[in-house]
Amino acid sequence: MPCQLARPTNTSMVMVYDALYDAQQLTYMQVITTLGITAPLSPLAGNNGCDNLTGSSCPVHQGELIISSHTIIVLPIFPLVDVTVEFSVVDELERVHTCFIYDVKIIV
């Protein structure tokens, strides 16, 4: 069942994971697939993972418990379609610290 995201709204998610590497910087990366097209989302405000940490700060250290949040901004211009989102948290060397895939249905 896909997550239903109403337009126009903001929805937050919280991620909890262990840092796989020492890192100075964390960045959120997203790739979407919809209507048979796969494309990276352009970096938007809020993609700096270091700005969204709870109880810690960058730099992070291997094995450190990381709690971070991300706000999904559903714009009023988004079409009413199903979307698959590949979400990754990467460091300055483009190493993936955590990643997951979720399905979304944009609704009114």
UniProtKB/TrEMBL annotation:
Domain of life: Eukaryota
Main localization, broad class: secreted
GO-annotated cellular components: extracellular region
Key words, A-Z: Secreted
All copies of domain MD-2-related lipid-recognition, residue ranges: 2-106
Subcellular location: Secreted
Record-linked Gene3D superfamilies: 2.60.40.770
Pfam families linked to this entry: E1_DerP2_DerF2
SUPFAM superfamilies membership: E set domains (SSF81296)
Membrane-spanning segments: none
Family of the protein in this entry: Belongs to the NPC2 family.
Name the UniProt record assigns to this protein: MD-2-related lipid-recognition domain-containing protein
